[in-house]
Amino acid sequence: MTNIHQNLIAGAWTKNDVSIENRNPSDIADLVGLFAQADRNDLDRAVDAAKIAARAWRGVGLEQRQNILQSIGEELMKRSAELGELLSREEGKPLAEGKGEVYRAGQFFTYYAAETLRQLGENADSVRPGIEIDMRREPMGVVAVISPWNFPMATASWKIAPALAYGNAVIWKPANETPASAWALAEIIHRAGLPEGTFQLLMGTGKDIGHGLAGHRGIDAVTFTGSYEVGRQVAIAAAPNLTKYQLELGSKNALLVMEDADLELAVSAAVSGGYSGTGQKCTASSRLIVHEQIHDAFVEKLTGALSQMTVGHALDASTRIGPVVSARQLESNLGWIDAARKSGATVAYGGERIELAHQGYYMSPALLTGTTNDMPLNREEMFAPISAVQAVSSYEEGLEKVNDTDFGLVAGIFTSSLARATHFRRHVETGCVTINLPTAGTDYHVPFGGRKNSSSGPREQGRNAAEFYTQIKTAYIRAGNPE
């Protein structure tokens, strides 16, 4: 009998009657585990416990808080090989990427451990004589974290770590597609020495638990990463209570490749940016906008590179592209290929379901040519190992196409012209820009986020995280006469 992994509520692992199966997308015969599903009563109990814990946690000394976060980060980094295998087993990304993600999750905790000691206020003289002003940041209180399945440890950690560092209690609702990674991270945090109820894990559906947290009167702030449509529902649920929210949503990132680009580097970036993690990244470059002078050579080299990418079991050392996360995702991906053909695009490579010895959700990486910016595959997020090429005749046309989207997370350019690179960096309508680099791959100590429909609310990561996880208090002090 497989044990059921339970939710963490008010400092204790709590039994639930309902659970779900978590199966390996590389081999669906492999049962990763059973994971409990929280209900509304669990949610209410968690919020009540968090409100009490938030008062205790904010009173814990900075060095103790720092030590706790440091210990969490160090354990994650030390166990990155073991936990990376678990992550790859349940999510499907190649093993090296799984290990790297766990290690990066640890780095978020050690970074914010250091940030606990950098919480410095400001002061000013009043315009009124004899009065001084003190300005400092205080915790929001209870923060709900709703995280996605594609980076089940890293995205959660870059939310949980700053929330705890700045003195908040956290209730975490991970994605149901990847509960094993969530439970493993929660177990580490639980043992780190936080006051009971400071950190809680509620596994369950977005409809029941995610929406319930966003609309709960006891939640002071909610941070969400996921699709644009679900993000809108989070905002709508939070609005009646004026709950502070932070939303990282969809994307349709473009990589602009000019005629003066280093072709080998550009192709390498297109492979890394569009197909690593099986294309299941919000930073993936699914739009490849290429100058017509090098279009054919670029497509030929990229097709050759894709043909060398081994699709296989996530834990196989030779695998470059693992399975997609679920049967539903695979059906959606293949549907995009069919729709693209019908709209006039050409499948230059791949886009087919692959059958291997072990039954999983495999497809070959796809490259589509002859596409235009008004085709749905260039307008909507796919979350798939699919890239679409468009030809342009000039830099100006290329920049216009890059910006012609409802999203604005990341965009990149490959060029040897400093003038073009500078102009692009200043005029592209995205929150993140890359120059002669893949669109996927960001650092943890600087702000991350987008524009347009890609983000709403303060930026994540780096010191900018304080904007969301804290609130400013301004105090006026009359000192009196020194006698």
Fill in the CATH topology of the largest domain: Aldehyde Dehydrogenase, Chain A, domain 1
Low-confidence segments: none
The number of helical runs is: 14
Largest sheet: 7 strands, mixed
Looking at the structure, what is the overall shape? globular
Q: How many structural domains in the coordinates?
A: 2
* Total number of beta strands: 25
CATH architecture of the largest domain: 3-Layer(aba) Sandwich
Distance between the termini: 76 Å
Helical proportion, percent range = 25-40%
Gyration radius over CA: 24 Å
Write out the CATH superfamily name of the largest domain.
Aldehyde Dehydrogenase, Chain A, domain 1
Strand arrangement, major sheet: 15-18-19-14-13-21-22
Question: Which structural category do the helix and sheet elements fall into?
Answer: alpha/beta
What does this structure look like?
- With 483 residues, the chain is an alpha/beta fold.
- The protein folds into two domains: 268 residues, Aldehyde Dehydrogenase, Chain A, domain 1 (3-Layer(aba) Sandwich), CATH 3.40.605.10; 182 residues, Aldehyde Dehydrogenase, Chain A, domain 2.
- The chain has 14 helices and 25 strands.
- The strands form seven sheets. It has a seven-stranded mixed β-sheet with strand order 15-18-19-14-13-21-22, with helices on both faces. A six-stranded mixed β-sheet has the order 10-9-8-11-12-24, with helices on both faces.
- The radius of gyration is 24 Å and the shape is globular.
- The termini are far apart.
- The model has no long low-confidence stretch (mean pLDDT 96).
Write a concise synopsis of the structure shown.
The chain has 14 helices and 25 strands. It has 483 residues and is α/β, with parallel strands linked by helices.
